[in-house]
Design a protein that fits this description.
The protein is of the alpha+beta class. The protein contains 5 helices and 14 strands. It has helices at 62-76, 84-103, 164-173, 180-197, 220-228; strands at 3-4, 12-17, 22-26, 30-33, 38-41, 47-51, 54-60, 116-117, 121-131, 134-144, 152-153, 157-161, 206-210, 215-218. A 5-stranded antiparallel β-sheet has the order 12-2-3-13-14.
């Protein structure tokens, strides 16, 4: 049986935790590359809030990822909010159910009568678990279609897409006790530095800061101000 999937995840998504908060960041570039033709758009919303204390990032095939997220939002609509760990486990089960259903849908290829198409998607879920009466325990998880949506717990952070520069910067500068301003700066710098050398990453930046009492979303202009802030040094 032949399987088709995307060669690369052409984006950068990041989630990282602080003491009692989570910061998430993403670019907005969507790239279609068929070899001789390449088209880029910068309007993909890759950071989507799921609950008051959790959000999801995605890379890979934008349309299918957005469909899964929208369908999952309908599934949890009206439920009492639960922590990000339980939410992620439920989301993984949902994605696995959808993948099994899709695998059994016939596809066509002139190259192989047994061709099957598996959408290539990576998700990061980040947010807070409830401790006592307060959402205050940050956690982030990664899951991909290639690995059957099996969960991977981040060691303080999760990176996906094209993370080589971000991985270097996190290895050098990330600390679990970073404050919101410095962690936001680190994530913003990862997005900016990657986009300078890799045309698959770019467009408008978006950051979300999930705290015990509120979630704040930073616009592209606000993210650029964070990058330009010379007072924020490592």
């Amino acid at each position: 049986m032949g399987w088709a999937k995307a060669d690369e995840q052409m984006t950068l998504i990041i989630a990282a935790q602080g003491g009692d908060f989570m910061v998430l960041g993403a670019d907005s570039r969507e790239t279609v590359d068929v070899g001789v033709i390449r088209v880029e758009t910068n309007i993909a919303e890759k950071l989507i809030q799921l609950t008051d204390h959790s959000a999801v990032l995605f890379c890979g095939e934008v349309g299918h990822a957005q469909h899964l997220i929208s369908k999952y939002q309908d599934r949890i609509s009206g439920r009492p909010e639960f922590g990000v760990t339980d939410l992620t486990e439920d989301f993984a089960s949902f994605c696995q159910e959808e993948a099994v259903r899709l695998i059994n849908v016939p596809t066509f290829s002139p190259r192989s009568p047994t061709y099957r198409y598996l959408p290539s998607i990576g998700f990061i879920l980040g947010g807070l678990n409830k401790v006592g009466r307060r959402f205050s325990q940050p956690r982030c998880y990664g899951l991909t279609s290639e690995r059957g949506y099996r969960l991977e717990l981040g060691n303080g952070f999760v990176l996906d897409g094209k993370p080589m520069i971000a991985r270097y910067l996190f290895a050098r500068y990330y600390k679990p006790n970073m404050d919101i301003a410095h962690l936001s700066k680190l994530i913003a710098q990862c997005l900016f530095d990657t986009a300078r050398v890799d045309g698959d990453v770019g467009g408008r930046w978006r950051l979300a800061i999930i705290g015990p009492t509120e979630t704040r979303v930073k616009s592209h202009e606000e993210v650029e101000e964070i990058i330009d802030d010379e007072d924020l040094r490592w």
